[in-house]
């Protein structure tokens, strides 16, 4: 709550996205973050009284019931890999496949195993209530696999805001991509979990598939994970990272997202400055994808906006909107012009600032 208040005071027009835990399993906050060598034993436990010095607690109480000897467990976006050797009570004994450190609040993945978690947890409900009270603009949902999941969250929100960011990060999300895009307000491509839950060799192809499908129907997208990973430790990015950001934007990404670079990195300000410059430059070269037959109505509007922008000496577009639909279509029309989006609800208009080139403005009436 204090962090959100600080953001509102410092950058009042910037939308705030709050991730809710959902079915994402994480290590808890640890007093001791264990380092290990290959073939060392690490003990995960569902007993949350531990602090990491002997056993590493995780935030899913039934994890020990779902795993068996021989299962693969990954952590920290798949950068750490383990094999389950055996289970003793609430303790899961793992053999490390590489050297590393298991840190606080890092994701735990067990691909291919149904962990039996409900779509919406009690913790999710509490956090959605908090999000409504404090006035965040977007709620992020992990491991979305269906329209049903999004609609369950929207029913709890019970209003136009916060809006929903659906994170596509496993094979179920890819399989049901069209219905997820239709039901959500924004799509996030979480490449870390997607790489672990599917195949790292397919991540770039999945990213292009998701961006293309979302762009056709005018839904905004966020590409996340390791955009400038080298800048956690270094002041300059690699050429591969610059290329990665550029291609994400050229393929239709509405936003690119930093995580470790700004959460724990040594050069957070430099990373934000760098990614902003790269993305802005790439956006000047972006083209709008061709429409599919089922998208003709949206495409006709975008085509008309582009035609008017080319034919008339316009310096900006003014869009009046209640829900934001017309703002979204105008923003993703690809005119390159700044957009002033006017509405009568401050929280709704602030959420439009996620869209490229948009400045939301709330007026009374």
- Which structural class do the helices and strands define? alpha/beta
* Residue share in β-strands: 15-25%
Gap between N and C termini: 30 Å
Major β-sheet profile: 7 strands, mixed
Which strand order spans the largest sheet, edge to edge or round the barrel? 2-10-6-7-8-4-5
Task: Give a description of the structure.
The protein is α/β, with parallel strands linked by helices and 365 residues long. It contains 14 helices and 18 strands. It has a seven-stranded mixed sheet, covered by helices on one side. It is globular.
Map the helices and strands.
Elements: H1 2-10, E1 17-19, E2 25-26, E3 35-36, E4 41-45, E5 56-57, H2 63-66, E6 72-75, E7 80-88, E8 91-96, E9 100-101, E10 107-109, H3 122-134, E11 138-141, H4 147-157, E12 163-168, H5 171-175, H6 177-183, E13 186-190, H7 191-197, H8 203-216, E14 221-224, H9 239-250, E15 255-257, H10 260-263, H11 268-283, H12 296-311, E16 317-320, H13 325-331, E17 339-343, H14 346-351, E18 358-362
Parallel strand pairs: 1-11, 4-5, 11-12, 12-13, 13-14, 14-15, 16-17, 17-18
Antiparallel strand pairs: 2-10, 3-9, 4-8, 6-7, 6-10, 7-8
Descriptive keywords:
365 residues, 7-stranded mixed sheet, 6-stranded parallel sheet, globular
What can be said about this structure in brief?
This protein is an alpha/beta fold and 365 residues long.
